[in-house]
Amino acid sequence: MQRKLFFILMIMVAGLIHANDGIYLANGSQLVPMRETDISIASEVLTINLGDDGLARVEVDYEFLNNGGAKTVRMGFEAMKPYNTADTLNPAGIHPYIKDFTVVMNGQALPYQNAVVEPGELDTPYTGPKDDRPEEFEQYAYAYCFEATFRQGINKVRHTYSYQMSYGVGRTFEVPYWLKPAGRWQGGTIGDFTLRIRTPKTAKHFIMADSLFTGHKFVVTEGTGKIRHSRYGWSPHLVEIALRDGTVEWHARNFRPIDDICIQSADTYTSFNQAYPLGTFYDRSETFMKWQQEQEFPEWLARNLPYANRGYVFKKKELKKQFGRFWWYMPDKKYSPSTDDFTPREWRLIRERK
User: Fold this and answer.
1) What is the SS3 assignment for 212-276?
2) Mean pLDDT lowest for which of 143-147, 184-188, 208-212, 265-269?
3) Residue-by-residue DSSP string for 104-157
4) Please, what CATH class does the domain formed by 2-265 belong to?
5) Where are the domains of the chain?
6) How many other C-beta atoms are found inside a 10 Å radius of the C-beta of residue 129?
């Protein structure tokens, strides 16, 4: 019952944050047991890939430790209903913004069943509205449930899926991921935990509250990137990352997740922060909001944004000076200017600003 109340409270708070100015589509989350278990998470590598198509692609590699005899555990994955959309309940239990869901355990693909459940209660079916409230105020979750047979010792599970990024006024994308449910495994900790955030074939500038990440540092392990810790006005302490075709990692042992993750595009604060004139990052995604593009960048600067995004070293003094003011700008002497990978939106940007 306490878990249920917690999830309802969390969604109520999320509703206040997103009301009228944002669209919440889906969240990522941990695989969890439906009942208490003596199995623990020995290690976990969580990889979140941020693309330009509006999808977050998730790959999770677990090693579960079973110190007892072989046993079958009913497990599941939960994602809250969309908020501030026109979507209605899907009685088949398939989340409208999650796709390509797979679970492979010890080399074998596991079949799963979908259901609509009470928030935080994977084994409690949602029975419908309790009164005459509109559906938008109803709280329910979509569940993906399966039977997992654990042999004694280490068991390897690979979990993959994609989900649609949320967005809103002031933020091009938002990727919520629930880590706290991992506390339902034995001991409430992850023996060896690695978070990887990747931006394959693109560039992103994003922020996260750093409450989870004290004591250990993020490290760029592939591609080009920058990392700093910041605090701006009303915001909490943040870790701010600019990453181009690369990977950033955070690693900890005996990790106890006390909070969830929310990866937000950095325009969440740069759009409204006087300390960042013209500092809004240029995102290649089609969802990048046009009003920001038009208001933030004069024509002569906007035409060069796709090149700056890729690290072009400008020769013109004024361009070099202006882009040098942007923290996210990461010049790359090896980059040869090319339009081969320009998106349709980038071509529109260049043509409209001539």
Assistant:
1) HCCCCCCEEEEEEEEEEEECCCCCCCEEEEEEEEEEEEEEEEEECCCCCEEEEECHHHHCCCCCC
2) 265-269
3) EETTEEPP-EEEEEETTEEEEE----SSS--GGG---EEEEEEEEEEPSEEEEE
4) mainly beta
5) 2-265, 290-352
6) 13
